[in-house]
Design a protein that fits this description.
about 325 residues; alpha+beta; seven-stranded mixed sheet; 11 helices; about 40% helix; elongated; binds phenylalanine
Length: about 325
């Protein structure tokens, strides 16, 4: 019987994967013929065992070899048919993208301020006049309200693309009770001529701190903490400035160069880099947002992100940050 089976197996033709499976089920599966024979083998007498053991093992080996050979030749044939493409191979790894330099700067700055209790707040990019201008103490005839500087969304002069992230200051003070410590990163829009140095949209991070007895010294120390965390040991200078919503107001430059102790990231080039505008929140703004200026005071600042990213990565043209050129983006 075994010899007959061996002959039968040797003459079997396996050309397709379906035939291969039929073969496997018939001979090699758990309930197949060979498994059955091994099962029966347990019950035969000692004499017979000697006689049958060897051919039974040969039968099994033969069946396995025929199965493996057929399997390989079927795989080879399908490979040839698929013009060398092996559709069974594991897929390659997907290319992994990288973080945009602007996002990287935002993440880093948010992390630094979160260590001293600031949390992130979001606000709309399409904003009404109240939150972008009026509550921030912009006089009615202020030039920033002009078509020249602001993008209006419709014919309705009340709705525009926000010109700064300071709109989120207003929304924070309207919706929260002091102490308030928020950071608002986001995109802003200005109707400006596009050049290597300026674009009609860019990013800012707004900071706002309102509590009892917040002073200008607190503002300065907070900013120094930020520049030292971000740029390494650094010098800052505050230049007097003007914003309708802060009084007094200042612009802050960080010194990056010539100083050997300054972090490696900013040692290329020399001079002062302007990074933000800031000031003590004007009492008129507190009042407009429902906070009593007799009880509370606070400071605000607005950091320009592109400027910092361009400095950090030595990017010569602001337009590179929004052109989505893969050759540029791959470097980050
Ligand atoms: N909103 C100002 C700007 O866009 C920056 C600023 C924010 C100034 C907060 C003072 C306080 O230039």
């Amino acid at each position: 019987f075994i010899q007959n089976l061996i002959a039968e197996i040797q003459s079997s033709r396996i050309n397709t994967s379906e035939e291969l499976e039929v073969f496997r089920l018939k001979y090699l599966s758990k309930k197949g013929l060979i498994a059955q024979l091994f099962e029966d083998f347990k019950n035969v007498s000692g004499e017979k065992k000697k006689e049958l053991g060897k051919p039974l093992n040969e039968l099994k080996k033969l069946a396995e070899k025929i199965f493996d050979d057929a399997k390989n030749s079927i795989a080879a044939a399908s490979l040839a048919e698929n013009k060398g493409e092996d559709y069974t191979r594991p897929a390659g790894l997907l290319p992994v993208g990288s973080r945009h330099p602007v996002s990287q700067m935002i993440e880093e700055i948010v992390e630094i301020f979160s260590r001293i209790g600031f949390s992130v707040m979001d606000g709309p990019e399409i904003e009404d006049d109240w939150h972008n201008f009026t509550a921030l103490n912009f006089p009615p005839e202020h030039p920033a309200r002009d078509m020249q500087d602001t993008f209006f969304v419709t014919k309705n002069p009340d709705i525009a693309l926000r010109t700064h992230t300071s709109n989120v200051q207003v929304r924070a003070m309207e919706s929260m009770k002091p102490p308030i410590r928020i950071l608002a990163p986001g995109r802003v829009y200005r109707n400006e001529a596009i050049s290597a140095r300026s674009h009609c949209f860019f990013h800012q991070i707004e900071g706002l701190y309102i509590d009892k007895k917040v002073s200008f010294a607190d503002l300065k120390q907070t900013l120094l903490y930020f520049t030292e965390s971000f740029f390494g040991k650094s010098n800052i200078r505050m230049r007097p400035s003007y914003f309708p919503f802060t009084e007094p107001s200042a612009e802050v430059d960080v010194y990056w160069g010539l100083n050997n102790e300054v972090d490696y990231r900013i040692t290329k080039g020399t001079g002062w880099l302007e990074i933000l505008g800031c000031g003590m929140v004007d009492p008129n703004v507190l009042k407009a947002c429902g906070i009593d200026p007799e009880v509370y005071s606070g400071f605000a600042f607005g950091i320009g992100i592109e400027r910092i990213a361009m400095n950090r990565y030595q990017i010569p043209d602001i337009r590179m940050l929004s052109e989505n050129d893969m050759r540029f983006l791959k470097q980050f």
